[in-house]
Amino acid sequence: MAVSRHWVECAVVAIAIAVSNGPIIAWQTLEPILLADGVFADMSRSEAIAKLDSLNSNTLAVGTASLLLGGIMYDHLGPRVLAVSGAIGASAGLFGMAAAIQQPSLVDLLYPSYIFCIIMSYINSWGAAYYFIKIPSHPYMVAAVASCSFALGDAVGIFAAQLNMRFHVSSWQFFFGMAVLSLVGGAVCSAILPSLSQFKAERDGLGIPDTKEGGSWSGGKEGAGDEGCLWRSLSKYWQDLRVACRLFCEKPELSLDTLHVLAIYMLVTSILVHQYQLYLALFGSSNASFLVNLSSLIFAFGGCVALLIWGAAAEGMGSRGFWFLLDIASTFFFISVATPLFAAQIVGEVMLTFLFNLITNALPFSIAFIHAPPYLFGVVSGLVYGLQGLFLITITPIQEWAARLSFPDTGATSRTSLDANAAPRIFVVLYVWFVLTAMTGSLRYWNLWRSGSRREPDEGTGLLAKS
């Protein structure tokens, strides 16, 4: 009965986080509304879309990288502090975005406000991690339910599009309303999640010993005197970070899994951050709006279905079979998106939903479950998240620059026209990342073949084996 109550609480917290998160993945659906409201009205349509895409890409990267910071804060401040402070911070960012759109003179405020909103949203999402402690026997399903907060958050885009179409609600009014709802979500998390002292007591009650030098996980009452010493806590976490980095060097399976995840992540985001621009170039304005709205709908509900199916199956499915399925999905995604047909793009959106939700929400936890000792679970998963953000924020400008060398901007100046080379630039980046995905996958399979063992590498050393 208590376990059932914990599942209900986990679902409610996930929904509250989804409300608080604001428009993380729904940005492409909001772009047509932002353009119609005159955001970057002094630019051509092509330039304005490129500016919004760049904003989406950079903020997504910074937000993902901030998950490492969230892991540090989670261990030392607890889930309630992160969920509530994240919701308040996301609300402040949404208020800033609303002001930037309402007052054209404040348009420069849009960039820092959105970045701050995303960072605080990702910190807010750590609130659901508490249920790994409350339901330790089903960690994959906990990861699936908790990660549904991001998938559900994409319903925000559909909601905004419907309000705009039916009631002419502008983007700034929508962001203002979301800012208020974010505070409500924070209040719900505050009522459900435990205090820091209760969280530490429950975590330490698991009794998982500190078996490695440099580990800061302790059982019983050890470390109780560190609560008032943030500097000592950060120093201990820095030790864990160094040990985790060494783990990546010492365990080739961990490094290859992470490298493959990064390649698939960049493959998927090469389309995700340019969806509206690609659809506009291929099919025109009306069909482009339809496709990004459909994408939000698929993301919202298909993402939850994909995560829950994965959570139910992953505990009984060997990781070799799961990774093979993931690679098949990546191939189907590439073929669908690379085919410039309307129906193929819809198939691509379905595959995008499956891949993006697993890569960004579930697989970092899965890699840590399999390869990391329990006291390094948060650090290792945070490092995988952080590397995703680092890759996106550093490599995206380079790949955009290289693509423009091959397919230069045609110099569209009209507010209604679009650069004719927009689609080829997106496709060439997609092709490159698919090749790199195939290469990293081949390395991973070669390493498995070379091991010559039917047993999964190190499957008994991670948190999953301790559950």
Can you give a write-up of this model?
It is a single chain. It is built from 19 helices and no strands. Helix 3 (45-77) runs antiparallel to helix 4 (79-102), helix 12 packs parallel to helix 15 (319-338) and helix 17 packs across helix 18 (422-451). The longest helix is centred in the N-terminal third of the chain and has 33 residues, at 45-77. The model is unreliable at 207-228 and 453-463 (pLDDT under 50). Helices cover 77% and strands 0% of the residues. The protein has a single domain, classed as Growth Hormone, Chain: A (Up-down Bundle), CATH 1.20.1250.20. The protein has 467 residues and is mainly alpha-helical.
Which CATH architecture is right? Up-down Bundle
The major sheet is characterized as: none
User: How would you describe the shape?
Assistant: globular
Point out poorly predicted stretches: 207-228, 453-463
Structural class: mainly alpha
CATH superfamily: MFS general substrate transporter like domains
CATH class: Mainly Alpha
Mean pLDDT: 81
Percent of residues in beta strands: under 5%
The proportion of residues forming helix, as a percent range, comes to over 70%
**CATH topology descriptor:** Growth Hormone, Chain: A
Distance between the termini: 19 Å
How would you summarize this macromolecular structure in one to three sentences?
With 467 residues, the chain is an all-alpha fold.
What are the key terms here?
mainly alpha; 77% helix; 467 residues; globular; 0% strand; 19 helices; single chain; Growth Hormone, Chain: A
